[in-house]
């Protein structure tokens, strides 16, 4: 496809910056890894290890896969189209957002769409590869940021970018109900959905970190309080049994009381050593 952009009819055509920093990094990594794939001719080795294989992520704890799958592609057209769209639509987003925000958006949409794909196919052993989840997120972000920019499909058919993005999203959504190809349409839709949520409610990373720390501390306090309650319960039970021994002698204990005394003493001794 050929694309040309205009803010309004008769204004100016938009040509993306040649190579913003984040775009340069992402495109270089993706092409570098694809070249390595092509030279090694080892897709069967790379994809099960670094593609997203839902069952292996949780059964074999290959927790890196929701991240690494974005950098591997199933063929030359797959990587070319993804990188072209990333460059064409992502360049101006990086220019207005800055490198760091653009990279965060790219990775959150990519990892997030991978996790959603995995959750809907936990038993699947089919590798999912490609940066399409992130690319679809970038497409949506462009359409919402510049809704009136015109895209010329094949240099002929003008369409506003918001409708172009809506059309692509609709096709991905409808295609997700049909198992007619090896394309993971769910990953595409998920990338758009996560991208939309990020744009509508950006993540406050400092606030998120504070809430995570707060929850962690609350959990630790709750855990310590639970241990203290359990310890007091054991101490009270042991003290009652010891009082009975003082009054009636050890032989007066039932088998259950003797066992509770032994286990309670062991637990209290263990806690004392830890403290």
Annotation keywords:
single chain, mainly alpha, Rhomboid-like fold, 275 residues, two-stranded antiparallel ribbon, 69% helix, 4 strands, disordered N terminus, 2 domains
Label the overall shape: elongated
Mean pLDDT across residues = 80
Straight-line N-to-C gap = 69 Å
What's the tally of helices?
11
Secondary-structure element sequence? EEHHHHHHHEEHHHH
Q: What is the name of the CATH topology of the largest domain?
A: Rhomboid-like fold
Walkthrough of the structure:
With 275 residues, the protein is mostly helical. It folds into 2 domains: 5-203, Rhomboid-like (Rhomboid-like fold), CATH 1.20.1540; 207-274. Helix content is 69%, strand content 4%. The chain contains 11 helices and 4 strands. The strands form 2 sheets. It has a two-stranded antiparallel sheet with strand order 1-2. A hairpin with a 6-residue loop joins strand 1 and strand 2. Helix 7 (132-145) packs antiparallel against helix 8 (161-175) and helix 10 (205-248) crosses helix 11 (255-274). The longest helix is centred in the C-terminal third of the chain and has 44 residues, at 205-248.
